[in-house]
Amino acid sequence: MNFDLPEDLVALRDGAREFAEKELAPRAAASDEAETFVEAQWKACGEQGWAGLSIPEAYGGAGLGSVATSVMLQELARACAATAVTMSVHLGLASSALVLYGNEAQKQKYLPRLASGEWLGAYALSEAGSGSDAAALRCAATPDGAGGFVLDGTKLWITSGDHADLIVVFARTSQASKSKGITAFLVEAAWPGFSAGKKEKKMGIRGSSTVEIRLDRVKVPKENVLGEVDKGFGVALGLLDGGRIGIASQALGIAQACLDASVKYAQEREQFGQPIASFQSIQWKLAEMALRIDAARLLTFRAAWLKDQGRPHTREASMAKLDASRCADFCAKEAVQVHGGAGYTKEFPVERFFRDARITEIYEGTTEIQNLVIARQTLGA
Ligand code: CAA
């Protein structure tokens, strides 16, 4: 057993860290403040090749796996959690949909554009009445008589929904069964009837865009049915297994940023005639943060490694997501505490980290849903 990252991943990590510190960190506070989509950051990521990191080389990507993607996402999130979630959804949910479930023609048509960063991908599962109970979705897909479908409905909480070019949409093709009547579709944002609606005003990750999307009689040709008709719920959950490793990685990046900022501040800030890092009360906070980050990182790399081996990873992805998101929440709270009053102001980035961390316990399956997945797997249910 070897716990060291191989040389190529050390180089990837160092390159991503340098890029994130230079290109993302200086823009993160302004995107958060203005609630503007991380356009410049996304473009810079595309130029670096991050947008195609896990897309096979045959389709213009770098052909790297889930461990490499996690390494990259951790570094992006350490500088800008909003860019990291945009990238995580683009790679882990949208591009992976094609890589894992697309046919050859679909891959050839869409993957090169997604890999270059020319196109941005999104994933549309949730609706007003179907969040945790994802299979309750009602967006309707009616056969058009020529093998294609007409989509009608509204999707909610769609990351990058107003900037994406290709959206993986889940819609109901049969009323006969709840989970066995859902189909996945590849929808182009430019098609008639597709539009972005209300933009959410969020607590954190405000540089990423989260919107409602409306499908008003959107015609989807049969070539854009992803996988088999009525078998889309398995596609949705299979993708979320990988997506959750991405969110665990994002959470780890936020947690690491909290620890880094706290170590720096604790060594600089003096009280009672000495740096506050010399006080045991502060040292124990730093130690607990470091411990939890290491534990969550091991869980995350294990899930990513299993995925790269082509082995089942549902349980491990949920464990990684649950633990890393709790870790981010804990580290963000402690980082604000270490900074004292300063941490409660926008003068220091930990205020943003505190708001950004919260969502990691909510999206791509709440902590409660991760517990449910782990419990079912443990009970063999
Ligand atoms: N992979 C593939 N198939 C799976 C699966 C998996 N991980 N887990 C279950 N399935 C299959 C089951 O085998 C079953 O198939 P059969 O009917 O053929 O036996 C089918 O899916 C239904 O399974 P369940 O009965 O377990 O389904 P359920 O209705 O009880 O739901 C759930 C399970 C875990 C609660 C699921 O609904 C869930 O994960 N909910 C959370 C939804 C979620 O994470 N949403 C995130 C939105 S996307 C987002 O946030 C992205 C963003 O923009 C940042």
Break the fold down into its secondary structure elements and pairings.
Elements: H1 7-34, H2 39-48, H3 66-79, H4 81-101, H5 104-116, E1 121-124, E2 140-143, E3 149-159, E4 166-172, E5 182-188, E6 194-199, E7 210-220, E8 225-226, H6 232-268, E9 270-271, E10 274-275, H7 280-308, H8 314-339, H9 350-359, H10 367-379
Parallel strand pairs: 1-4
Antiparallel strand pairs: 2-3, 3-7, 4-5, 5-8, 6-7, 9-10
This protein binds acetoacetyl-coenzyme A (CAA).
Description:
By secondary structure, this protein is of the alpha+beta class. The protein has 3 domains: 7-120, Butyryl-Coa Dehydrogenase, subunit A, domain 1, CATH 1.10.540; 122-231, Beta Barrel (Butyryl-CoA Dehydrogenase, subunit A, domain 2); 234-379, Up-down Bundle (Butyryl-CoA Dehydrogenase, subunit A, domain 3). The protein is built from 10 helices and 10 strands. The strands form 3 sheets. The chain has a 4-stranded mixed beta sheet with strand order 1-4-5-8. Strands 2-3-7-6 form a 4-stranded antiparallel beta sheet, with helices on one face. A hairpin with a 2-residue loop joins strand 9 (270-271) and strand 10 (274-275). Helix 4 runs antiparallel to helix 5 (104-116) and helix 4 (81-101) packs antiparallel against helix 6. It is globular and about 80 Å long. The model has no long low-confidence stretch (mean pLDDT 97). Acetoacetyl-coenzyme A (CAA) binds next to helix 4, helix 6 and helix 10.
